[in-house]
Amino acid sequence: MYRAAKDGVRVPLDLEPYQTAVVVVRGGHRERPHLTESTVPVLSVERHGPVLRATVEASEAGTHRLVGTDGGHRYHGTVRVDDPLAPVPVDGDWRLTFEREGAQPVTAPLGSWTEHDALFSGSGTYTTDIDVDAVRLRDRRVLLDLGDVRDVAEVTVNGTVLPPLLWAPFVADVTGHVTAGRNTLRVRVANTLSNERKKPLPSGLLGPVTLRFRRRTTVELRRA
């Protein structure tokens, strides 16, 4: 989504804390159909005969107004999302195991592992099980939001290892990996060397951990 202006191109950005984005503007290309206004993230816009079809992704219920443009003409449409998309907290106790010889698992709520060993630097794995109803997964994208992580993380869902999370926001797309019924989540976290050098810092999976849901829908925009 963007809007051409006399002084350049205006691109709205909605970023989470510490999130980064790269915007590439290429010259010499014919302008394609696109949206200029939307209150939900836009995934794609295509022209189909007299209308524009936009695919958007909502994170909560509501009515959203869309405005698009193509060939100098404006198009308008509205999308209504009735799905509440309520998040699911992954709370309760987790099992933490430090990666060192002789380490015994510690079962406790999430928090800095300095509560268990203030001077440990290295990796630790947090494990828990979560039950998810099939209705929560149907036609939804599913995200695992780890909350606060010190300092990097790797998520495993039901034995499948996902790409590492190296910076905030620590969110993994677990669509297709989380299934109806019981699921096993493992989060391997590594901190810095500061702790073993007797300068302890908060470390590990601090959370809160939450399953979040997104609903994708396609809407037609008609010429104004």
TrEMBL record:
Keyword Hydrolase included in the entry's annotation: yes
Source species: Streptomyces violaceorubidus
Domain (Beta-mannosidase-like galactose-binding) ranges: 125-199
Top-level lineage group: Bacteria
Keyword Magnesium on entry: no
Pfam short name (any one): Glyco_hydro_2_N2
PANTHER family: DNA-BINDING PROTEIN (PUTATIVE SECRETED PROTEIN)-RELATED (PTHR36848), SECRETED PROTEIN (PTHR36848:SF2)
Database matches in InterPro entries: Beta-mannosidase-like_N2 (IPR054593), Galactose-bd-like_sf (IPR008979), Ulvan_degrading_GH (IPR053161)
Keywords assigned by UniProt, alphabetized: Hydrolase
Name of the protein: Glycosylhydrolase-like jelly roll fold domain-containing protein
